[in-house]
Amino acid sequence: MIEKNIHFEKNDSWKKIIGIYTILIIFCLITLYPLLNVLSVALRPGDQLFSTSLRIIPEDATLDNFRKAIFETDLLIWLKNSLIISTLTAIIGVFISITAGYAFSRFSFWGRKVGMMTFLVTQMFPAPMLLLPMFIILVRLKLMNSFLGLLIPYVAVSVPFSVWMLKGYFDTIPKSLEESAYIDGCKVWQVMYKIVLPVSTPALAITALFSFMTAWSEFVIARIILTSAEKLTLPVGLVNLQGSFSAEWGTYSAAALITSVPVVILFISLSRYLVGGLTVGGVKE
Question: Where is the ABC transmembrane type-1 domain (predicted)?
Answer without folding.
Answer: 79-270
